[in-house]
Amino acid sequence: MATSLTDKKPCIRCDKGNGTIMCYGCQQSFCIKHILSHREDLNIQMDNIGQEHDFLRRDLNQENNNIHPILTQINTWELESIVKIQIAAETARIILRKIIDRNRNQLKLMMNKIHDNLRSSRESNDFTEIELEKWTEQIRELRRLIEKPVAIDIIEDENIQSSIRLIKIKENFNESLRELCSYTPEIFDQTIGSVTLSEKNFLATCSENYYHYSSVYGKNSYSAGIHRIRFRIENITMNSLFFGILPTSQQIVPWILDSSSIYGWWGLERIIINGKEQSVKKDNILKIGDEITLILNCENRQIQLKHHRTNRFVQLPIDIQKCPLPWKILVSLSNQNDCVRILH
Q: For the whole model, what pTM was predicted?
């Protein structure tokens, strides 16, 4: 604010023309009396502004007045999400416990079954190397299943509309345990050519010569674990015998070399891979009374053949694309009266 002695504008309040002073804030003229009153008005306005400032500072510092409406929504979303997560987590725990308990009970049932077989056979003194080998393999497989955690995955909810993906429990079905618990002895089943099955399908005999040999397939399917099928050659003529596998999905073919999925051996020398003969060595070491064990190792994708008399051991890796799981056994007989028995 400043005064002026040259301007003679009248007072804005009393209209007197002499002794007026200009206020450069509002650009109005006031007489001496009213310039003081005008200044008081400005002081009152200053006080009011200061008071409003103090009120504003107080309100700004009050926490409750700082809560934005969106913050309330966020808090509500947080609480609801926590509840959903807790429900999903507890559901997953319950399912996981059920799966673990079910697998443990299955293992106990299988262990009790082996225990009963061992006790019964020991009391009756009725067992051979065949049973001992079978029980050893079953116990070894049970040990592997006990030490290996149950195959379970955690998967996320695929609901893309949710900002938080909840979890679910997915059990990877334990095929090894299922096959172990539902074990049934292998027997011969389907035949092609001139094959006669007898003695509850444990014995396969070639009844007459067949131009593409005669073949017989096993009944069981094998998709997991390690399985041993033991054979005894009851009779063999001048040619060899074939022991091997093919996919369960494979249709029966009249000649094994017509299939690109067959793996195995003629005797032990002539190797068949993808239905093709890889070795032309004609030595035939198989004799009447020989015992042979065909081992199907589904875990390592390979098959093995053990000739017990000579203690020879051969193996083949399996191309799972050419010969997919599950597998079944295949035995081919060369001539009339060739005869093979499955031992148990």
A: 0.56
